[in-house]
Amino acid sequence: MRQIPGMNGIVGTLLNKLPGDVWEVNEIQDLKESIEAGGLELLGIESVAIHDAIKAGTAERDHYIDNYIQTIKNLSACDVHLICYSFKPIFGWAKTTLFYENEDGSFSLVYDQAVVDEMEPSEMFKLISSQSKGFQLSGWEEERLNKFNGLVEMYEGVTEEKLFDNLKYFLERIIPVCEEMDVKMAIHPDDPPWEIFGFPRITKNLFDLKRIIEAVDSPYNGITMCTGSLGADPNNDLVEIIHEVGDRINFVHFRNVGFMGERKFKETAHLSTEGSLDMYAIMKALVDVGFDGVIRPDHGRTVWGEVARPGYGLYDRAMGITYMQGLHEAIIKAKGE
Ligand SMILES: [Mn+2]
């Protein structure tokens, strides 16, 4: 990664941590040192997962929020100042095909609502794991399927309003600590940005994002602008969203999607002409609102025969970051800054 031009850091995670675990200082320090040994900086964590008790608002939530607060303090002690997280019950991201072959022989992830409509939620686990090719796919682990029925029970009666209240409760407890520790939070939008299997989703659009940042009005309570997640819904105007919530964008995921039909899309190469989003307009909006935080290329295709976790190949994301930097340089120079 260090050989990609202009790369100075990465966002990382501790893969062995379960939601609710405290991240110990020595573990974070080991991660940090392994990255620094490669000539890069650890610029943030993606993600520190939220325990279901916090999302569902059960009696144990305070215990897990205490753990989360300890993790925030430990990250700060290691000079890490950005946490990406999501607040989605049961299903984080969802796709129906992990290796859709494009005309050029590359592979993309595809989401098709028509396929999901024909399935039970538990079948979704089988569909995803049957295509994982042995890679760990966060949120779709075997152990989560085993707990699936318990999770469904846990979320019974958790409406959109209730889920939002539980997020607010969590934020009200952690954000004062974030302010003190200088650790910025960045909530990731829903992927896809609409309800699936009837579970509530509260990070789908501009309305949702505004409601979240207004719930606790602090620059430490911010969002991850994931263009591919929000952009999968053609009703989401990404330029408008960036202008509306610009000062609260703490992290950016830069990627494109291509619409294939009603609630059907694929993850394409980053270039505007390869998908349905105007990546130039998105980058320009980010520059216009003065975004100066961490940005990374997100997802992409599998190309050149690479054996990679679906959506996380190195090659296409390396091309993506180079494109990103080209857009950024051109926009900055055109502004005469
Ligand atoms: Mn993303």
TrEMBL record:
Cofactor(s) the record lists: Fe(2+); Mn(2+)
This protein's record includes keyword Manganese: yes
Superkingdom in the source lineage: Bacteria
InterPro entries in UniProt: Man_deHydtase, Xyl_isomerase-like_sf
Top EC group: lyase
Family matches, as SUPFAM superfamilies: Xylose isomerase-like
Sample GO molecular function, one term: mannonate dehydratase activity
Pfam families: UxuA (PF03786)
Family listed: Belongs to the mannonate dehydratase family.
Cited function: Catalyzes the dehydration of D-mannonate.
Protein's UniProt name: Mannonate dehydratase
Gene symbol of the encoding locus: uxuA
